[in-house]
Give the backbone structure.
Amino acid sequence: MLAFTNRFLALVPFEKKPHSQFSIKAFGLPLRSMIMWLLLLTMPAISSAATGGWTSKVTGGNIVYTSNEAYKPLRDFAGDYATIVYLENLGFHKIGRNSNAMDVAWLRSQGYRVIELNYAHNSNAVTPKINKDIIAINREISAGSFCGYNNCSHFQSYVLFEGYRIARNVPYFKDDPAVYNTPIQYTKGDTLHMDIIYPANASVKVPVILSFSYSNSYATYDSNKKMLTDVNKDQRMNLAYTFAGFNDSFLEGSPANGIAWAIADHPKYCPWGKGKPVNGPNDAYKSYETNPDAARKVKSAVRTLRVLGVKFYLTGKIGIFGFSRGSTAGSMAIGDRNVPTIEKAGFHIGVSDKVQAAALGPGVFDYTLIYHAKENGASGLRLRCPWAWGTLANNYDLWQSMGSAYLVQSSATAPVLFFYNTDDELYYQDQIERLKAKLDSLGVSTSTLINYGTGHAVPQTSTSLTKVYDFFKKYLTPPAIVDNKGIR
């Protein structure tokens, strides 16, 4: 029965038109009968589900969870299971019009273990309070124990809101191995990927926020097997860095604000502490990325997301959320300067790569500033940038072209919210202050969120998260979210 159910699920074209009912003409059955038949077919699998209680920081007590394995499980390279933590019966009306049973069955048909957390319409299960549980979920999975499981993937586990589905490993750029030359056996470029989390069978179109991972995906050479392996590919969801390591819940909490989200491989397809120019010294690119490679990838990712947004019933409005190395990467999307070597590379050339807004945390936006007194913390960049680009004095234009500030040319640049803590590295603050000053001088709308926490960190409190969500709502205009207290 399960095998037949899996084959049936694969046949039904759920995603052909996300905003309309799926086609059932081939089966000759009315919609209601088809749904009932589908539920009956899946009932044996559902009846064998594991259940229990999970302590929620949002509700202040235990909430019921139900877990089901995938029909054909996906596993990561550590052998752990791709997992969806599915938040349902929340404190607001969901945008997706499918039943939760239908969407959970679809997720399982895609290879995911699904753990449903039933909030029983608790009034606190709304933005931004729900982010506390998102942080707790990612921490527990990363620590190795969640809802009775110790084998949820640390690289392929996602928190999804009810009514949302996932398109995973979507290609957005073909990498050039000659840029970072690491490892030397990597000579045929891999494809960089992104994951897109979108509402299924939505009642209304939604905008989307794109972020570039703080974890680097890359090719790995196994010297024992004398071959390249896939072990470090698709590491953008690495919980130890991207989410659990920083308690970052912003992206995964966006659907509670009527906004879809996507996360892409970092443009530097290489270990963060590696990379060198052709015939250059080893590790010349340690801890930074080079252009035009990074900008090409960022622009191609935006174009890809905009094109696929038609299929996923997105509005076409795209925001950027960036932190640390993800901020440096994401900032490449905000400027309006047209550089042919950037614009004419990657996928969907000719499609607009304009973004409507960006929230950028600490990052590096202009490498020509690293010798300023406030940027003493950038000693690593002072050492290695000249290895790659020559001295600043003799190669100023080249150095300038490496940063996102160079791509900012006029008031057509996207509005930016900058966020940082003043006890973080001083060079990050100097980079933000100077990019903000440039934007202000051009008449670009900017704002700041300062000291929402301590050190090198992302917004985590309800107050700070609300400010960032409200910023995106202003420029992305998502549909209103209706909860027990009305429209938010």
